[in-house]
UniProtKB/TrEMBL annotation:
Domain of life: Bacteria
Matches recorded under InterPro entries: P2CMN_synthase_LarB, PurE_dom
MF terms (GO), sorted A to Z: hydrolase activity
Domain PurE: 119-251
Name assigned to this protein: Nickel pincer cofactor biosynthesis protein LarB
Pfam families reported in the protein's UniProt record: AIRC
Single biological process term from Gene Ontology: 'de novo' IMP biosynthetic process
SMART domains: AIRC (SM01001)
Amino acid sequence: MSHSYNSIEEVLKAVKSNQLSINDAKAQLSHYDELGFAKIDLHRAQRQGFPEVIFGQGKTKEQITKIISSLIFHNEVILVTRVDEMKAKYILQHYPNLEYHQTAQLISTPLKDIPQSKYYVSVLCAGTSDLPIAEEAALTAEIMGVSVKRFYDVGVSGIHRLLSNIHDIRRGKVSIVIAGMEGALASVVGGLVNHPVYAVPTSVGYGANLNGVTTLLSMINSCAPGTSVLNINNGFGGGYNAAQIIHMLENKESEVSL
């Protein structure tokens, strides 16, 4: 793995001192890495605060492995979503230091290597059937360096389960609410907390759920203010957005302390 350079000046100095070859310097200064089947965005972290994330669904195991190789060369945190076990087994044979999170179908840099934030995100899951999407959200936030507290199986059909955890949920700075069926949990949580809520509808439900469309429409029509709705089964989007808010909050505090 190569050293990471934070500026053009650092790259030029490394070349001058023979610490970096000209070819490696060109790679460090590139805006993207051309792989033929993909152009890897190497400046994503500089623009958005986190490296390019690999959407594994629809890509071959060989393609994913080559993309990971490019990102690792540039010392980026690895996050690959929607990876089945067969692809994961192949990828981990090439990169055994990465972790596979089976429930979320996600490959990442080891969580132990990622410092976590002071503030945390509350991730709520209505039912056990929604766990894959909830874990995708929770792990995405954690891989982005944000602490997470999980509150699972707290759907409205047994609302006492939610209320017994409400004080800890409120202490979080953002809530991600994962629910299928009619998606009522998002509205309930939205009416109980004073921070942003990201609602993620899932495709869990009987026929009239329409593979999550009913849940999506229900969440969009929530009367609880402060609730934003992600796409169906988009746990990644919920985790990413929540992590951005935590980073903004902590960066603001750092600026004030200076």
